[in-house]
Amino acid sequence: MDEQFSITLPRQAYTVAVMRDVLRTALRARGICDDCSYPILIAATEACANAVDHGAPAPDYAVRVRFRSSLCLVEISHQGPGFRAGRVPLPEVEWESGRGILLMRALMDDVVFHATASGGVTVWMDKHLHATEPTRHPQCGAASVLPQPC
User: Fold this and answer.
1) Which of 102 and 48 is assigned the larger pLDDT?
2) What pTM did the predictor assign?
């Protein structure tokens, strides 16, 4: 069974930590281990920081997270100007920023940037979670398809 949640936040720096706390709570509630959770949290944080930094003039940005058995999909959208991820230069060693896209690609299994028809940007990222085995609920015997604690 798929589960999802979405949240729209004002394009303010403090909301990146709010998103991270909401996502961390959702990952923990599903028993997803730290080895899977930390890369998802870091990549989502970077994508949201980019939406905050580069999403003007949009007043907000949206985060949608879906869980599909052994997969976590994260989608971050804003209505700011589009860009081509392939044309973003590699950061120089002394630069203090510019590593977000590299981190997202290194930490997630798949990352796709999409320019929306309305001029915004959506980044889709997914992470395969550790292999899980179906378990039975102790009281009713229903099978669980959510990842088990690693």
Assistant:
1) 48
2) 0.80
